[in-house]
Design goal:
The chain is of the alpha+beta class. It has two domains: 22-38 and 116-202, Outer membrane lipoprotein wza domain like (Outer membrane lipoprotein wza fold like); 49-113, wza like domain (wza like fold), CATH 3.30.1950.10. 25% of the residues lie in helices and 22% in strands. It is built from five helices and ten strands, in the order αββββαβββαββαβα. The chain has helices at 2-20, 87-98, 139-145, 176-181, 203-216; strands spanning 49-54, 62-65, 71-74, 77-81, 107-113, 118-123, 129-132, 158-162, 170-174, 196-199. α1 runs antiparallel to α5 (203-216). The radius of gyration is 26 Å and the shape is elongated. Mean pLDDT is 79; it is low at 7-11, 13-29 and 223-229.
Length: 229
């Protein structure tokens, strides 16, 4: 009986500590600007489909997909690095490559299909996974695409992780509870390609998991019944 009292008191203490613990705040350098697009010039990614147009030599026009190694293959230019370049930069590189073959190589590059326009949703959602961006999408809409929140989700501290040009991730938290109840719709920011949205577990869900792993599986206590001390 004394051991049982100790276990119950421990559980009560854990629940109390979780309920009183402040919400952890992460650095938030990501701008809350509500534009659903990046202000940086687009850079070609693996999987993009490119239309390469030759103004004066239309017989060389081609549509190519950027390979996993980041390169494309064209007539008279079989290996050209495309990934990481802007369409204008790639067009300039192609003009230089074709200058010895053509009298006036006027070339333009058009991104026909953005195969890399995806982001990822993980954590306490129905079906974590990739979300394809076919238009402007907010954090709430991205979560809805993956089945919505689980009952164990922590609405008020959803993480948005965004990569930058220097490959250093930026992190911010958004309080979707305020977006849901209408007190601050600005919390439901737009996502960008390669963003990761992570929905953490609620404190009480963590307590339930702790109880299941460290109490129910170790001590055979029938928690469905009450105890009198």
């Amino acid at each position: 009986m004394e051991r049982l009292k100790s276990v119950v008191l421990t559980i009560s203490a854990v629940i109390f500590l979780f309920s009183c613990a402040p919400v952890v705040k992460y650095p938030a350098p990501i701008s809350r600007d509500q534009r659903p697009y990046s202000t940086d010039e687009y850079r070609i990614q693996i999987g993009d489909v490119l239309d390469v147009k030759f103004y004066y030599n239309p017989e060389l026009n081609d549509s190519v997909t950027v390979r996993p190694d980041g390169r494309i293959s064209l007539q008279l230019a079989p290996e050209v690095m495309a990934a990481g370049q802007t369409p204008n930069d790639l067009a300039g590189q192609l003009r230089e490559r074709y200058r010895s073959e053509l009298r006036n190589p006027q070339i333009t590059v058009i991104v026909r299909n953005f195969g890399s326009q995806r982001m990822f949703v993980d954590g306490e959602v129905g079906t974590p996974g990739l979300v394809t961006l076919t238009g402007p999408l907010t954090v709430m809409q991205a979560i809805a695409e993956t089945g919505g929140f689980k009952e164990t989700a922590r609405y008020n501290e959803v993480l948005v992780i965004r990569r930058t040009a220097v490959k250093k991730p930026q992190v911010m938290t958004v309080n979707l509870e305020n977006a849901i109840n209408g007190t601050d719709l600005g919390q439901d920011i737009y996502v960008l390609p390669f963003d990761i949205v992570y929905v953490p577990r609620s404190p009480i869900a963590n307590v339930d998991l702790w109880v299941d792993q460290y109490i129910r599986r170790i001590i055979p206590i029938p928690f469905g019944f009450g105890y009198t001390f």
